[in-house]
Design a protein that fits this description.
147 residues; Rossmann fold; two-stranded parallel ribbon; globular; EC 3.1.3.48; acid phosphatase activity; Tyr_Pase_low_mol_wt_mml; Tyr_phospatase_low_mol_wt
Amino acid sequence: VSTGNICRSPIAEAVFRKLVTDEKVENKWMTDSAAVSDWNVGRSPDARALSCLGNHGIETAHRARQVTKDDFQTFDYILCMDESNLRDLKRKSNQVKDCKAKIELLGTYDPQKQLIIEDPYYGNEKDFETVYQQCVRCCKAFLEQSH
């Protein structure tokens, strides 16, 4: 989960989907991404995010969506990008009875200890590549710990 679901979270979703497919465990995972805000609902990921993923041979057909109450009851993990996302998600989860999702920063899994995955929206291609590399490290570590 990220703020608008057009940069960081669709990159993380696409990276994780490729990892579980490569590991042949995709049938054990339901993978999606979403936003805490409703700003971009229905939009494709940022062109720079798509370009970055494409440079690594990854495609996505994701459309931005906002986190729903059902997400807290459906998913085992909701991983987000920064402290603001974490606060918003915890506040929303408090309004959901039977919340089963463990809500964490994706960066807690980074072997390089980069806890926050900064929003590259106002940055350049290099910033999107940084997000991609962080997501690869974190998603690999998360997958190793969870199966």
